[in-house]
Amino acid sequence: MENYENLLAAVAAPEGGRPVTDPATGEEIGRAPERGTDDLERAVAAARKAQPTWEALGHQERSRLLNAAADAVDRSAEALAHLISREQGKPLNGPGSRFEAGGVAAWLRTAAATPLEPERVLDDGSGQATLRYRAVGLVGAIGPWNWPALIASWQFGPALRMGNTVVMKPSEDTPLSVLALAAIVNQVLPEGVLTVLSGDGGLGAALAAHPAFDKIMFTGSTRTGKAIAAASADNLPRLTLELGGNDPGIVLPGADPAAIAEDLFWGAFINTGQTCAALKRLYVHHTLHDDVVEALAEVAARMPMGPGVSEESMLGPLTNAAQFRIVDGLVEQARAAGGRVVTGGDPDRGAPGHFYPATLVTGLPADAPLVVEEQFGPALPILAYTDLDAVVDQANALDVGLGASVWSSDAEHAEEVAARIEAGTVWINKHGTLHPMVPFGGVKGSGYGLEFGVEGLKAVGVPQVIAA
């Protein structure tokens, strides 16, 4: 499975199934098996049977196998990257599909290496108490289409490390990437420990409501996250929900527009803007507004957009037609309301592929739809402000809080402003950079629960106190 053709052949349905198309061309690249509730029941039974033995192996042996799985990913990384590019659309290069495949291996190795030692919480004359974490049991995971393989590894890597078994359902738009990743790592994992089932939304709903799952993990929209929470309520599984965001960035007076422009650009346009924690609305002090807009436009002009498998592309198409329509509609609505499209807009709507150019829009009011609705695509509204207190209020006004950023040459002032923003992560002079040891999660409508590092391991475990 170390080349693209073998990897695709290993996971695609030989006949029937759901067609999967390249968002750059519309060409069918393969068909994903369509699994149903009977398949889910078989996967649950196999995972339940495998879990006690898997947990009994202990952390050291499970970590060894996760490292072996990461080695297997490395051997097939180029094939996996090409499949991601053809199915999801992101370019091979830059922060694209090769970056994603490499991230899978890095996150698996971090899950394997992160210590989670028992914690002595009481040791005095009254007695002793130790807090430790055990496997939760069976984990159900439902993934998105924007970073399909990477986010799958964020879900199953820590879960397996803690002794759980996992049944996953990938997005209907990008099932082959996740099926391929499972085929790669299952070369070294025991049978029944990790199962991926591709199917429609009904399969995801059945997974969320299934009483066998002790933990549900979901990354995706706030609307779907609420539906999962409701569907699972009768069973009381633990939940980790990483939901939508509309991340603000605030550029403070004194920042250097030329120095921050490229980082601002990639904060907003990584994966063609299709990232939950991407920069989605930018507030710039009025003294710097025009310079920041000009610097961003210059960066956009030198970033080629094209098919993901082209070595020259730095931006790819949107993954599906629905997302293209959302972005296109928001930009046209902004234009009609008097917004100025500085660069971008005006896609070739009749051409094959879901290409929408990197777009900067200025002159919008704070309540414009492009500002207050998550566009999840390559269209960035840029708003001038004069009063810092007012702009912090605007940043906090929405019922989401995944990420945010503050941009300044004064680190102390930037940290003071960052502490006032309601978001799970606030970056300073960068946006959206994640590290496998740094906890990540949202507040408000962006969900709850943490991933990554020690806190991510705890989230897929059950705390137990032993007191004497």
CATH architectural arrangement of the largest domain: 3-Layer(aba) Sandwich
CATH fold-level topology of the largest domain = Aldehyde Dehydrogenase, Chain A, domain 1
Strand content: 15-25%
- Main beta sheet: strand number and arrangement? 7 strands, mixed
Form type = globular
Distance between the termini: 53 Å
Q: Which assembly state applies to the chains in this document?
A: single chain
Going by CATH, the homologous superfamily of the largest domain would be Aldehyde Dehydrogenase, Chain A, domain 1
Helix amount:
40-55%
The number of helical runs is 16
Low-pLDDT stretches: none
Total domains: 2
Describe the protein.
Residues 28-37 have a biased composition (Basic and acidic residues). Belongs to the aldehyde dehydrogenase family. InterPro entries: Ald_DH/histidinol_DH, Ald_DH_C, Ald_DH_CS_CYS, Ald_DH_CS_GLU, Ald_DH_N, Aldehyde_DH_dom, LUC3-like. This is Aldehyde dehydrogenase family protein. By secondary structure, the protein is of the alpha/beta class. It is 41% helix and 21% strand. It has 16 helices and 20 strands. The chain has helices at 4-11, 37-56, 58-75, 77-88, 97-113, 148-161, 175-185, 201-209, 222-232, 257-269, 289-301, 321-336, 369-372, 388-396, 411-418, 453-459, and strands spanning 18-21, 28-32, 119-124, 127-135, 138-142, 165-169, 194-196, 215-219, 238-242, 247-251, 279-285, 340-343, 359-362, 379-385, 400-401, 403-407, 425-428, 443-444, 447-448, 461-467. The strands form five sheets. The chain has a seven-stranded mixed sheet with strand order 12-13-14-11-10-16-17, with helices on both faces. Strands 7-6-5-8-9-19 form a six-stranded mixed sheet, sandwiched between helices. Strand 13 (359-362), helix 13 (369-372) and strand 14 (379-385) form a beta-alpha-beta unit. The longest helix is centred in the N-terminal third of the chain and has 20 residues, at 37-56. It is globular, with a radius of gyration of 22 Å.
